[in-house]
Write a structure and sequence with these properties.
Blueprint: H1 6-16, H2 33-51, H3 55-61, E1 64-66, E2 69-71, H4 74-85, H5 104-117, H6 119-138, H7 141-152, E3 157-161, E4 177-181, E5 184-195, E6 205-213, E7 223-229, E8 231-233, E9 239-242, E10 245-250, E11 261-266, E12 272-277, H8 283-319, E13 321-324, E14 334-336, H9 341-372, H10 380-413, H11 424-431, H12 441-454, H13 459-473, H14 480-505, H15 507-510, H16 514-540, H17 545-562, H18 565-575, H19 578-581
Parallel strand pairs: 3-6, 4-6
Antiparallel strand pairs: 1-2, 4-5, 5-11, 5-12, 6-7, 7-12, 8-9, 10-11, 13-14
Helix pairs in contact: 1-2, 1-9, 2-5, 5-6, 5-8, 5-9, 6-7, 6-8, 8-9, 8-10, 8-11, 9-10, 9-16, 9-17, 10-11, 10-12, 10-16, 12-16, 13-14, 13-16, 14-16, 14-17, 14-18, 16-17, 16-18
Length: 588
């Protein structure tokens, strides 16, 4: 049975990353630790009681395409209605349009609960949140008035239409065109891989569409962004005629079967009516507002599914009796496999990676809040740069470890992990898309070294490295295990510094080792978080012995067993590029 990781979330928010820096600031007047805890408790109840019980049903029943539109499982429609009634669609929405204005860090913590309970369901409100952010920041006053209140209250949902079959990740190659038609546009084209591009949760869906206005420049400079409603909206806010936009099919996928992945056609009957967002030819810039929000949200899905797989594997290992081990409760007798050393290794691996990724994800979200909070004596530009730097790491590293940890979850189950009835396989299948959504791991790595590290000559990364080093060095004296762990963390950070210097000195070579560098970043930053976690657990042990003793052993495992991988990755980044750049694809 799924248990929301409430205690873990509170630990990261209140003790590890310092969310209390948001207490009392004007942008988030209601925020406090108590407020966050109450929201998380309510979210945990909803995740455990409503979303988790229908997760496997969604996997087996799935979304169904019909000529009249996509039909969702009845249990999912009921869950969405309860989600709206609970006010969850409003949590992060702007207050002036009916939202609750909660900070990103709290929204990110809540999203983890949705993702680990039921990833297929979670994807719908995630896309809506992205549409809200794009319209709120770039739309006209009239567009905000017309669309935001109903998107925020859940009456409508939103999505984004980017990918085309011939273009893939190369958005400069899209062919969807927009023809001027008075104050509006008529769009013609087809988009693929559109998550929740159609469903029967709500009577309307607001599509955010990339298209090229007739006569616009070629490439990414000629792309514009449009609002294309599924159903046209009258001046009084009521629904009018059906727009010329249709779901012509849904994909048959490895996982997330209850999340409809749609092929959307526009213009079969004269052209889909669209409304320009912002200025012409700046669509890719606007779309990245949605993209960056989605990359953080998808990144957390990686460690959310790792958490779910860990819980399933731990439960199995504690109850599956097989073989003998000297570490069993009865010396030399039959024991649950959780007492077998290699099973313990796998469980510790799953838990430690999950905790490290969660800490990095919530820390990144907090930086985005601090950048907007207007706190006296606080460098908002530094926080913004750090948040932006971390997003590709959160997205790329967390989703890759999600795949690895859910695979380990199958392995812990042994042969039964390969059998669908245990449920372990679904998490593995569902999470696999997360390293592809919103830009593959390779794209995230190129974004990291090109736009986030390279654009400022490594200033933001160097500032983070200096900060991590200083914090670890300033920790109080520690016992032997703590000394070893801190040394490992400092060595990993030193390796990250050397690798960063190497990349900046050789931009061409950097492209070949970008993904190892991204993994190095995730591991090393995770080491910083685990060293801090270990110290907090030592200091707070008497307050909650079982919890903090568990934190100590997980942090120790990460620092002593996972973090040494940084040495190999740093070496690859500094010396491994030429074996890739000089390779001939014809000889592969």
């Amino acid at each position: 049975m799924y248990q929301a990781p409430l205690r873990e979330l509170r630990f990261v928010l209140h003790e590890l990353i310092g969310d209390r820096s948001l207490d009392g600031v004007a942008r988030f007047p209601d925020y406090s630790a108590d407020f966050a805890d109450s929201v998380l408790e309510a979210a945990a109840d909803f995740a455990q009681e409503v979303l988790a019980p229908i997760n496997s049903l969604g996997d087996t029943e799935g979304a169904k395409w019909t000529p009249d539109g996509v039909v969702m499982p009845a249990a999912f429609r009921d869950a969405y209605a309860k989600y709206v009634d609970g006010g969850w669609t409003q949590l992060r929405g702007p207050v002036e349009h009916g939202g609750q204005g909660a900070p990103t860090v709290l929204g990110t913590a809540v999203e983890e609960l949705w993702a680990s309970a039921n990833l297929a369901f979670k994807l719908c409100p995630m896309l809506t949140q992205g549409a809200v952010e794009a319209i709120e920041r770039c739309g006209t006053p009239e567009q905000k008035h017309r669309y935001l209140p109903k998107l925020i209250n859940g009456e409508w949902t939103g999505t984004m239409l980017l990918t085309e079959s011939q273009a893939g990740s190369d958005l400069g190659a899209i062919r969807t065109r927009a023809a001027r038609d008075g104050s509006q546009y008529r769009l013609h084209g087809q988009k693929i891989f559109i998550t929740y591009g159609d469903h029967d949760y709500t009577p309307n869906i607001i599509h955010m569409v990339l298209a090229r206005i007739d006569g616009a420049p070629a490439g990414i400079r000629g792309i514009s962004l449009f609002i294309v409603p599924k159903v046209l909206v009258n001046a009084d806010g009521s629904l009018g005629e059906r727009n010329d936009v249709r779901c012509v099919s849904i994909e048959h996928k490895l996982g997330i079967h209850a999340s409809p992945t749609c092929v959307i056609a526009m213009g079969d009957q004269g052209g889909a009516v669209g409304y320009l967002v912002g200025e012409e030819n700046r669509g890719l810039e606007y779309m990245f507002i949605m993209m960056n929000a989605a990359r953080l949200s998808v990144g957390l899905e990686g460690y959310a599914l790792a958490e779910r797989a860990y819980q399933k594997a731990l439960d199995w290992a504690r109850t599956r009796v097989q073989g003998k081990t000297r570490q069993s409760p009865k010396e030399g007798g039959a024991a649950p496999i959780a007492y077998h050393p290699d099973i313990k290794r796998m469980l510790l691996t799953m838990k430690s990676y999950t905790e490290a990724a969660r800490a990095i994800g919530l820390y990144a979200a907090l930086q985005l809040d601090l950048a907007k909070a207007n706190i006296a004596d606080h460098d908002a530009s530094l926080a913004q740069a750090r948040g932006e730097l971390l997003i590709p790491i959160v997205k790329g590293w967390s989703t890759e470890i999600g795949i690895a940890m859910t695979s380990l979850g199958v392995q812990v189950h042994g042969g039964m992990g390969f059998i669908e009835e245990t449920g372990a396989a679904q998490f593995y299948r569902d999470v696999r898309i997360c390293a592809i959504y919103e830009g593959t791991t390779g794209i995230q790595a190129l974004d990291l070294i090109g736009r986030k590290v390279g654009r400022d000559g490594g200033t933001a990364m160097t500032a983070l490295i200096d900060h991590m080093t200083a914090e670890i060095q300033a920790l109080p004296p520690a016992a032997e295990a703590g000394v070893r762990g801190r040394a490992a963390a400092l060595n990993a950070i030193a390796g990250l510094r050397a690798a960063t210097t190497s990349l900046l000195a050789s931009p061409e070579a950097a492209l070949a080792v970008a993904v190892p560098y991204l993994h190095l970043c995730g591991l090393a930053i995770g080491g910083w978080m685990m060293a801090k976690s270990q110290q907090i657990a030592v200091e707070q042990l008497a307050a909650d012995p079982a919890f903090y003793a568990g934190k100590q052993q997980v942090a120790r495992f990460y620092l002593e067993n996972i973090l040494p991988e940084c040495l190999a990755l740093a070496h690859i980044v500094q010396t491994g590029a030429s074996s890739i750049t000089e390779a001939d694809p014809a000889l592969l």
